[in-house]
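Appendix B: complex inputs.
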Amino acid sequence: MKSYESEIEALLNDKLNEYEPSVQFGRVWSEYRKNYMKESAIRRLFKAPRIAVVVLAALLIIGFVLKPRVDKIDYPFVDDPRVIGRWQTVDCVKTIDQFVPGQKALLDQLPVNQLVFVKGGKMLMQNEDTNGSLVPSVSTWTKGLMIYIVDKTASQYEIREVNGTAYMFLEWKTGDYVYWHRKPSYYVLVKIDDHDYSDFKVDVKEDKIDYPFEDDPQLPGTWQAVDAVSSMDQFQPMDQQYPGVLYLQRLDIKEKGSISEVTTNGQNPEGDLTWTRGLIISKQEKTASHYEIKKFGRDTYLFYEWKSGDYKTRGMKPKYYVLKRIT
Amino acid sequence: MILQSITQEQAEAIFREYSSYVYRVALFISRSSTMAEDITQETFLQVFRKYGSYDATRPIGPWLYKITLNITRNTLRKQKWLQLFMEIPEQKSTHSIEEEVLKNQIDQELWQEINHLTLKSREVIVLHYYLGLKLIEIAKVLDIPLGTCKSRLHTAMNSLTKKLRANDHFISYQGGDQHEKL
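Resulting structure:
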């Protein structure tokens, strides 16, 4: 731990000392004089609501500016035979011109190792989370674009020849682009095969779901989703980890095994989800998700394994929804 | 009681000495340069206004950083409140390309893990390792018992050690964007 301490100290100094505020003393001083020194008692009386309005207006403006950016994504499919096949990522660069074959601009391992452009617009991907296997991606493509429906981004791709090799430069629209309105960087990929992956078979995981009902008196009630975390120990009641709107909003868990869920798409009727001690079962999805109830201070939370497509078809570890008991 | 107001010379000296640190602490905790600018300005406005209540026999740093942290927390709270209505993302720059093009892989992992710590842990880390405050001073700044302060630092360090050990193949460019939304 000692070595980390000196590392942390050096790193904080290294990273933070680069930054200087742009706010000048003169501005703060004149603001101080204006607001606090010459304030009459009557003005003080009206100060709070006035500042509140100004702050609110400023926050509203900031909120508007920082609203997530959404691209047009409803493009018709147009074929592009050049992209069909499997592509390997080799680099990530800020601008296309920055790319030099054999010299990596980004020293890190990239999260996506391979992308496969399938005939008709579907895509497959391979990354560390998928244990080296190809899995279906939620992204699709049409000529010149890769479309990601979750964040509503349309990333342009361009194929250029560099030193005799064809490289694909694909805009990489992460949170920096969506939330901070920054220019996207570019993934650089090189083609490794021209195969047609249309018949690619995906292993869909199915859990055992035929469990007999066993009661758990702690579970029935209404639970409001407050966070989503990769592991239960990540959860901190006052510090939401998941940045964004949670898809699952609420679970109304009844006695004797029935559940109705409310998501951002609305209320799903009872029937699909049921529960038995320790498990929440989806008949439709054929998943059995473990749950655990924990107390933090006075509040009670339900940790519910979320077995989405990431788990079923992409071989990934399920994450946890955290829901707070409200009744 | 009549509180002595601050003179321009005193104010300027304090501003010159501490404004960079205040800004960097606010930047580290809020992860937003816009917010950090506002927090810096608001901190010094409060420092100047409350200067008369400051005990001049004690070092000014901890008193000033206490104001900084209170303002930072309030600002973050307001931002979270606004987020409920306007879908402003929490200002977590886990995907920032600038952060990821660090030359040293270990530094990068460490920096990422520090940034993933909870707010409370990050507060203790920046006060201790960046501003060099002693634990007893941090306890006063954060208004918590010394034991709690030690435990927060210990938890933060444990969490970092655990994560860094687990991250033999740490991927900083996490591809959460490729997966389904929760």
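The mean pLDDT of chain A is 85.
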